[in-house]
Design goal:
Blueprint lengths: L2 H6 L1 H6 L2 H8 L7 H10 L12 H10 L7 H11 L3 H21 L1
Helix pairs in contact: 3-4, 5-7
């Protein structure tokens, strides 16, 4: 699978389900779940994507919700509350941890 083919088929990806996209892209060597989720967020602009494997998102939830040990159940509960706008929640969480890291360095 070549990157040129990926760009040529972008229109097909926009029409495909998340599962269909994952099934197609996972076949590319070096592409994993996180990469596919980022592709769906930043290339396809899907609104309901949350990457459970993204450490920055997990750390941001822990900081913003004051949770020391975030369980899978707690994470799933939050994700279900944010649906169908998990991508928007992700962007806000990333921004919030970015701001904290930046402002903490200034102090």
């Amino acid at each position: 699978f070549h990157s040129g083919l990926l760009l040529e088929n972008l229109g097909n990806f926009k029409k495909a389900s998340d599962k269909e996209i994952e099934d197609e892209l996972i076949q590319i060597k070096g592409v994993g779940k996180w990469t596919i989720e980022m592709f769906m967020i930043f290339i396809l602009f899907r609104l309901d994507v949350f990457s459970k494997g993204d450490i920055a998102l997990i750390n941001s939830i822990k900081l913003n919700y004051n949770i020391i040990d975030l369980s899978k159940n707690q994470l799933n509960e939050l994700i279900s509350k944010w649906s169908p706008y998990n991508t928007i929640a992700s962007l806000i969480l990333w921004k919030s941890i970015e701001n904290r890291m930046f402002y903490n360095k200034l102090e």
